[in-house]
Design brief:
The chain is α+β, with helices and mostly antiparallel strands. It is built from nine helices and 22 strands. The longest helix is centred in the N-terminal third of the chain and has 19 residues.
Length: 320
């Protein structure tokens, strides 16, 4: 008899496979070793898989669980948000609890992305703190055709300025690299870079707006224009920054690939598509979540009380 019950967390959408341990104390590493192919197939079919009720005491067991699937745990190089390393894994984005992180596919602001994301809920927030998911193909279908066409034709250009105290510094973004290593990384990726007189770095990279899922063949929305664009900031922050600096000096911003500004109405339509596809569930302590990064976007709700969510990335997809 199977020691785990399988169902769908969101049966109406046929999304997120749920694997519930029948009794406490089940070792997720040993179970995954017996069921790795089953779990991977379920994640491709349902966009993500949630393991609940397993015995996951700490980050060491989480890292061992991820390693069952045969890929090295990736480093967060070329990161866009602050994180800390915990053993072999990372904290989720370290933004204040009051902030909401919009839906996004991990590292979709560049041309190479992790294939799989892994989350471990070590401490669940007293309220809020969910990691909402959204089907990337369904989001693509919801965006008006004329908006999709503009993005597909031009791609998205991301302009980033790395200054300590304003977003992430270049040293945080490229951990362990000196300037020559950063230049080599940029050259290999087709990223245009410029060292500014104050020693800070500016990069510009033009990337895809969409991609095709390697297993399902579905077209998925795969960019972070709505998140990088200055309109993602609240009005007071946006006005304060633009009083301090020119638009090209903002910590980050997004344009169409030809350098033209993105229409606010287009970004509003994209955000509305994400909102319409949101799938939200409360974390429980010990939850493990495997996410197909091309099939599902994710975000973060605001929260109250302590919360500790650890993250890992494996696999690599994309490339110019």
């Amino acid at each position: 008899m199977d020691d785990v019950k399988e169902s769908r967390l969101f049966p109406a959408q046929d999304r997120v496979a749920l694997f519930e341990a029948a009794a406490p104390g089940l070792d997720p590493v040993a179970w995954a070793e017996r069921n790795a192919d089953r779990l991977t197939a379920a994640t491709i079919a349902a966009g993500a898989s949630l393991l609940r009720g397993f015995d996951v005491p700490d980050d060491t067991v989480f890292a061992k669980f991820v390693r069952v699937f045969g890929e090295d745990l990736a480093e967060y190089t070329y990161r866009s948000t602050p994180r800390s390393k915990v053993g072999d894994v990372y904290t989720s984005t370290e933004y204040p609890a009051s902030e909401v992180i919009p839906q996004h596919n991990e590292m979709a602001y560049t041309s190479v992305w992790p294939r799989w994301l892994w989350f471990y809920s070590q401490i669940a927030a007293r309220s809020g703190g969910e990691t909402p998911l959204a089907d990337s193909h369904a989001v693509y279908q919801r965006i008006p055709a004329e908006v999709r066409e503009r993005f597909e034709r031009n791609g998205v250009r991301y302009v980033r300025n790395y200054r300590p105290g304003l977003g992430v510094s270049w040293q945080e973004t490229f951990p362990g690299m000196d300037k020559s290593a950063v230049e080599q990384f940029c050259a290999e990726r087709g990223i245009v870079y410029e060292w500014l007189p104050d020693g800070s770095l500016r990069t510009s990279e033009t990337c895809q707006a969409i991609t095709t899922h390697p297993d399902t063949g579905q077209v998925v929305w795969m960019n972070q224009a709505h998140l990088f664009h200055v309109s993602s900031l609240n009005e007071a922050t946006r006005e304060a920054l633009l009083e301090l600096m020119a638009e090209e000096d903002l910590p980050r911003n997004a344009y169409l690939g030809d350098g033209t500004r993105i229409d606010d109405a287009d970004l509003a339509a994209i955000r509305a598509a994400y909102d319409a596809e949101l799938l939200k569930f409360p974390w429980q302590p010990g939850d493990l979540l495997m996410v197909d990064n091309l099939a599902m976007a994710h975000g973060r709700s605001s929260f109250a009380g302590p919360r500790k969510l650890l993250v890992a990335m494996t696999g690599s997809v994309g490339g110019h």
